[in-house]
Write a structure and sequence with these properties.
heterodimer, A: 619 residues, alpha+beta, 7-stranded antiparallel sheet, 5-stranded antiparallel sheet, 19 helices, B: 319 residues, Immunoglobulin-like, 2 domains, 7-stranded mixed sheet, 17 strands, elongated, disordered N terminus
Chain lengths: 619, 319
């Protein structure tokens, strides 16, 4: 038997539902493949025992999955897919299509808390199209014939529905009574950023995954985004100072360390499975939807939880142009901390001293940077076992090797220095006017302390070649950025902003109307007589336009042709009959009635005929 | 005269709709609680789905015209085929409409421009019936609601009295034997007179189809004896003649049955009651008699003087 259109619609609808969860984990696409393989047996299972077994399948799976303690997201997603598949395979009634629809919404809900992909909205639109079709088809009693009108109708409905949904989305009040952090499913394991900085042998893979987008108008490339600062190095790894001190928003404005004149940049940070916040250098303040933040002795910022969804915040930097607004002076104890050295060989110390030529601290630092860039090469596959091996023997490494070497060289030469990890990017998307930061942009550099200017960035790593993104990829990314800006991170503040602009727009329109009216009034006052004449003419024109010439004039003419004693209740025919003139005037009266009451008439032609008749009678 | 009720629009939420509504509220609650914009987006889509389904349901029943076509003659107690037509005046097709006319339901799955169905209705009583409205019910688009809308129409149905098989009792009337009388209304047209063109008002039973086909215009057969073979029927509706109303109803049925036989056989009939309808045999004449019989009621007045040549209800026997 040929399959009905409703079966195929249901199949496509379930496939779309599966694709929703596959946004979180692509392995779910296997379920879609299984579903397609099941098409031949759809509706053909006749055995009652088999039917019961298929119906019981979701329950059996659920019990087993719970007993085996699978991840709840996977358990629920798989359960819902099994329910839909079982409904699809068995013979379906209208009720079953409806149940498939409800299950699909549950699946979308599950996905919505575990993804931020722009594909979500595309799938949501397809869900609307296919869902509407499926629910309408399920009510057909006969075989469905897809006609153009029906398809157009459903398309129009789904477009209208999506537009309406977007209107609801943007206008619905954002209360944010709770805060769902998202499910830890997308936490990247290949992130270029890691809190732990260990100098050891091992290959580093460059990953093009975007981790951050930054709208930073006051900054020029290369843009350095600091995340963590390190002071203590044990010879192998840098000690991580996690956030311990809690920072609460003052007067609930969610401002952390912000003073006037700072440079603001808006950051859309993808979930990278970390709690570290990043900001352009001299990153000293944050504003965002956080319950609280944590900080450490280096003024690094940490969220109250590990974020698993895109977060948006404003980062404030204490630098405007080139002048720092806030400089952090260090105490004597801290001074000592930034001179800390691990156990180092004589040879290492000699190299450090040789590298630092010059009298002043600045000269020495410049000399060290030049030395490192001259004698050492950049490699993503370093063979050095540790920092001494890198400096003395291998002389090949990546940013962490170079930055660590510089800090140690500076400290050996009695210059306080520290290591900074974060990102550095030069990739700017002109379409959306924002910087793009990828995983491969993870970077480490050094900061040396200058009593005048505070901490000054020193990057000793030789430049590595970075691929230039294509125009198309930049365009696609700007669409994605727009999705993050306007949908994923849409909040009450943005809503207020829109409302205010709408209000302003209305006020502006009102003022324009008012101004125009004022102008009109002043013109009227100035040219009073002319205005009265113009108004009179306009009114006359309107009145004349409303009245058809033949309606009154012709009527009166016909009446005068019949006689002069017409009663108000009489029609023209009755009056003509009473006066014995009906036979004589019949063509004229008939023609008048034709124009007056008939709908299907060529008015111009008939009017001409009537006027001619009237003329002939008048003669 | 009895009227059909004309109820206003009525929307009932179905269990599927109720579940969907609860579900929407739940998604909304999750959105508010989570602050997750994708849940908000899901909620917006679900809500728009629900609101637009209500709007679609409304527009599915707008711009619709219902046309009811009734047969020329409707007799009480007989199955009558009524044709109902829905005309869609909009460009958008209409779906899943159930039309309720005279307590009978008829389903229209899809209407692009217009669609017709027939229903069988049996009217219990004779009389005038006014159809003020028809009910239009639909579950479109998603079976969440059942929306019922009354469409006002003005249609008057005249239900003629019951008709049964009858014959005349044996007795003399106006020098005619019963055999002669029965022969008259059974119309055994043995006396052929001529064939002429059909005129308005002629009995359609007398159409000569063979001649019509030959000449390309409607012809009827005339019989020589038609002038003299009329039947005079008398139905007195004075309430003093009938102990109970049901006896009067029975008298009406008997007279109506005899008149129908005459109509069928093309016999001239004259009816004397509170009005007098002269001898004639045209369809219009018979319709006038049927219409009168369908509305005639007992009157508080003295009985009419019996005419000897007239056939009375008691002269008519059920076969």
């Amino acid at each position: 038997m040929r399959k009905d259109a409703r079966v195929y619609t249901a199949l496509l609808f379930i496939l779309i539902s599966v694709m929703f969860v596959s946004l979180t984990d692509k392995h779910f696409l296997i379920a879609a493949a299984i579903l397609i393989l099941l098409i031949p047996i759809e509706g053909k299972i006749k055995s009652n025992a088999l039917k019961k077994a298929i119906e019981a399948l979701p329950l059996v799976y659920f019990i087993l999955a719970i007993l085996l303690s699978f991840n709840l997201f996977y358990v629920l997603s798989t359960l819902l897919i099994i329910v839909m598949t079982a409904k699809f395979v068995l013979e379906k009634k209208a009720k079953d299509y409806y149940e498939i629809f409800i299950v699909s919404i549950l699946l979308i809900l599950l996905t919505s808390v575990s993804t931020i992909s722009i594909n979500f909205v595309i799938l949501l639109y397809l869900f609307l199209v296919l869902g509407s079709l499926m629910l309408i088809f399920s009510q057909f009693k006969k075989n469905i014939i897809l006609n153009r009108k029906l398809v157009l109708f459903v398309s129009a409905f789904s477009i209208l529905s999506m537009l309406f949904a977007l209107a609801i989305f943007f206008s619905i009040p954002r209360l944010s009574l709770g805060y769902l952090h998202g499910i830890n499913l997308r936490a990247s394991t290949q992130s270029g950023f890691s809190k732990q900085i260990v100098i050891e042998k091992g290959k580093v893979n460059l990953n093009n995954q975007i981790v951050m987008r930054i709208v930073a108008k006051n900054f020029k490339p290369p843009l350095y985004l600091s995340g963590l600062h390190y002071a203590y190095f044990d010879g192998r790894k840098w000690k991580v100072e996690n956030g311990k001190q809690k920072l609460f928003p003052i007067f609930q404005t969610n401002n952390f360390g912000i003073t006037s004149g700072m440079s603001k940049s808006t950051i859309y940070l993808e979930p990278i499975g970390s709690d570290t916040l990043f900001g352009p250098e001299k990153f000293v303040g944050v504003r965002g939807d956080f319950l609280y933040l944590k900080t450490n002795q280096f003024h690094d910022f940490f969220t109250d939880f590990t974020y698993y969804k895109t977060i948006k915040y404003d980062a404030f930097s204490s630098i405007h142009g080139k002048t720092p607004i806030v400089t952090f002076s260090i105490t004597n104890a801290e001074y000592e901390q930034y001179l800390q050295l691990p156990e180092l060989s004589e040879k290492f110390i000699n190299i450090a001293k040789t590298a630092a030529k010059g009298k002043t601290k600045t000269e020495k630092i410049h000399s060290i940077v030049n030395y490192l860039k001259k004698h050492y090469t950049y490699s993503l596959n370093p063979t050095a076992q540790n920092i001494q091996d890198f400096v003395i023997n291998r002389k090949s490494g990546y940013c962490e090797h170079f930055a660590t070497a510089l800090v140690l060289f500076a400290r050996i030469n009695n210059i306080p220095a520290r290591l900074v990890s974060g990102f550095v990017t030069s990739e700017f998307n002109p379409d959306g006017e924002y910087f793009i930061v990828r995983e491969r942009d993870a970077h480490a550099w050094a900061e040396v302390y200058d009593p005048k200017n505070g901490w000054v960035r020193v990057d000793p790593t030789p430049n590595s070649k970075t691929p230039v993104p294509s125009q198309l990829s930049l365009l696609i990314d700007s669409i994605r950025m727009s999705w993050y800006r306007n949908v994923v991170t849409y909040n009450s503040a943005k809503q207020m902003q829109i409302l205010t602009s709408v209000q302003k727009g209305i006020t502006r329109t009102g003022l324009t109307i008012n101004k125009s009216l004022e102008l009109f009034r002043s013109v009227i006052n100035k040219w009073r007589l002319a205005s009265i004449i113009v108004t009179g003419l306009v009114l006359l024109f309107i009145l004349l336009r409303k009245e058809h010439p033949y309606q009154k004039k012709v009527y009166n003419k016909i009446v005068s042709l019949i006689g002069n004693d017409k009663m108000a209740s009489e029609t023209l025919v009755e009056y003509a009959k009473r006066k014995g003139k009906f036979k004589e005037l019949r063509p004229l009266i008939t023609q008048y009635y034709k124009i007056r009451f008939s709908k299907d008439v060529d008015f111009k032609k008939s009017e001409k005929q009537l006027i001619n008749l009237l003329k002939s009678y008048s003669k | 005269m009895f009227k059909f009720p004309c109820k206003q629009t009525n929307t009932k939420i179905k269990s599927s709709g109720l579940l969907f509504f609860i579900f929407t509220v739940l998604v909304g609650a999750i959105a508010v609680n989570s602050g997750n914009n994708l849940v908000y987006l899901t909620f917006s889509v679900v809500l728009s789905f629900l609101i637009l389904s209500g709007l679609l349901s409304y527009y599915n029943q707008r711009n619709i015209e219902v046309i009811i076509n009734l047969p020329d003659m409707i007799f009480a107690g007989e199955n009558t085929t009524i044709s109902v037509q829905i005309v869609n005046k909009s460009l958008i097709p209409k779906f899943f409409l159930t039309l309720e006319v005279l307590n009978k339901k008829v389903y229209f799955e899809e209407i692009n421009e217009k669609s017709s169905r027939t229903i069988e209705v049996a009217f219990k009583k004779r009389g005038k019936l006014k159809i003020n409205a028809v009910k239009l019910t639909s579950t479109f688009p998603f079976n969440f609601f059942t929306r019922t809308r009354a469409i006002k129409i003005k249609k008057e149905v005249i239900v003629f009295p019951h008709k049964k098989k009858v014959f005349l009792k044996v007795r003399y009337r106006n020098n005619k034997t019963n055999k002669e009388l029965n022969k008259i209304f059974k119309k055994e047209h043995e006396d052929f007179y001529s064939i002429r063109q059909y005129k308005r008002g002629d009995n359609s039973k007398l159409i000569n189809w063979k001649a019509s086909a030959k000449l390309g215009k409607i012809m009827i057969t005339e019989y020589a004896s038609t002038e003299s073979n009329g039947i005079l029927i008398m139905l007195d509706n004075s309430k003093y003649l009938y102990d109970k109303e049901k006896y009067f109803e029975d008298a009406v049925t008997r007279v109506n049955s005899l008149v129908y036989d005459c109509y069928r056989t093309g016999t001239e009939v004259s009816l004397i009651s509170e009005i007098t309808l002269p001898f004639a045999k045209s369809t219009v004449h018979f319709k006038s008699i049927f219409s009168f019989l369908s509305t005639v009621k007992l009157k508080d007045r003295l009985p009419i003087k019996k005419i000897d040549s007239a056939i009375l209800p008691e002269d008519i026997e059920y076969a």
